[in-house]
Structure formats: C-alpha cells, structure tokens
Amino acid sequence: MDRILATLMFFTRLPFWRIKQVDAEHFKHVVPYWPLAGWLTGGIMVGVLWLAVQVMPMNTAWLLAIVSRLLMTGCLHEDGLADFCDGMGGGVTRERILMIMKDSHIGTYGVIGLIIYFLLLTQMIALPLELLCAIAFVGDVWSKFISSHIINVLPYARNEELAKNKTVYQRMSVVEILVNVVIGSLPVALFLPHFYWWALLAPVVVFIILTSMMRHRIQGYTGDCCGALFLISELAYLLTCLALYY
Fold first, then answer.
1. How far, in Å, are 2, 10, 167 from residue 26 at the CA level?
2. How many other CB atoms sit within 10 Å of the CB of residue 52?
3. Would you say residue 113 has pLDDT above 80?
C-alpha cells in the first residue's frame, strides 16, 4: 500500500500526501506501479472529455481533457520531454547531454519538441467520442506500462547524488513484474476494440528505438528519459489508432 501511495504522490500532484507519510525508500519502487497512475490520470482525462463535450465542441473538450492531465501531473512528463529533446538535440558527448538535461532552462529543441507533440496530440479530435475515450484511457495506461520497463533494460545514467529527485529506481522484482503486467494489460482487454490492438505495438517499437539511443548516447536513462519515452510512446499509439480508423 505504501508503494502505491508513493506512486500516486510521485506521478500526480493530487494531495495523496494527506493520507499518510510514506518513507523515502518506497519512492525507489514506484515505476512498477506507474501504469496504476495511468488508471487515475487517464480516467480523469476521459471523464473531463466526456463531460465537457456535452456542452462544448469536441476540439475544446479534448483540449480541456489534455489540460486536466497536465494539471494532475504538474507537467512532469512534458518537462522530461523538453529536457530530453534539448539534451539529445544539443549535446554531443555523454557528459554534455546529461548536463543539458539537468538544466532547468528550456532550449530551442525542447520548445520545438513540445510544439510538435501538442500539435499532433490535438489531431485526435478526428475520432468519434466513444472511440477516443477508450483509446485515450488505454493509451495512458499501456504506454506507461511499456515505458516502465526502461528500468529493467538500462542502468541509471547518473548516481543517486546527482539525480534530480535524489532517487534511483530499483529494478522490478518478479512479483512487481507480474503486478505491472496485470495493471498495464487489463484496460486493453476491457476497453480497447480488437481492431485497434495492432496499435499496441507502436509503443513497443518506440521503446526499442529510444532505449537503444539512450544506451548508445548516455549509457543509461534518466527521469527525463522516462517522461519522454512515455509521451512519445503514447503519441505513437494514438497516431497509429488514428491511422487505423481511416
């Protein structure tokens, strides 16, 4: 229970800290439960979309749904995407890339990366409401499930003292992997039409490509890499669903 609370505290800005004080050690084990945070953020995002579309146009409702997730997460993953783009785009050596990623200032690559990301994300309004709700919810959970395994295939690129949040995630145990698989896969079976199951492969492909890049360029991953991997994986899944629809 403490690790679940730590996960919800870490990956959202909702006041779960009011429930109980959680020991810092549990924050090293939040990644296996990352998809569970997706049940919350994806569920609220879809709820906002469904309610908003009853009284306003689809494009406005989808934007409000996106904003609701940004508020829930404190733009945690978007910050990671911006830093990842800046580091990979502006750095040449491993040390330089890691230095740029740690810099709190956003650069040209980060700005362009976020603009492209949000422009593509807004194209999902072309889907019917019911389908978009199902796809968006599954995409949040599934992409976090796939992305969470970065800690199993790559080492942390910095030491604990140099980590932004002073936390280095522990690799998953066998039990954590089983829980992770159940949490991440259940929405697929419950909500995603079978025709769109092909889109589930897109995050896997993105995972392979980006983790290979990280291994080559910085010999590991950082928290920013986790956020970027999730958003790019989710976007690839959503765009694949859009292509399948047409």
1. 7, 10, 10
2. 18
3. yes
Asked if 65 and 185 count as a contact pair (C-beta separation under 8 A), the reply is no
pLDDT tens for each residue of 69-107: 999 999 999 999 999 999 999 989 999 999 999 998 999
Taking CA atoms, 32 is separated from 35, 83, 204, 241, in Å, by 7, 23, 17, 26
- State the sign of the Cα–Cα–Cα–Cα dihedral 222, 225, 229, 231: positive
The confidence score (pLDDT) of residue 24 equals 83
pTM above 0.70, yes or no: yes
**Residue written as token pair 């990644």:** 31
Find all residues with CB under 8 Å of 243, minimum gap 6, and list them: none
**pLDDT, mean over the chain:** 94
- What are the tokens at 40? 């919350």
Q: What is the DSSP letter of 173?
A: P
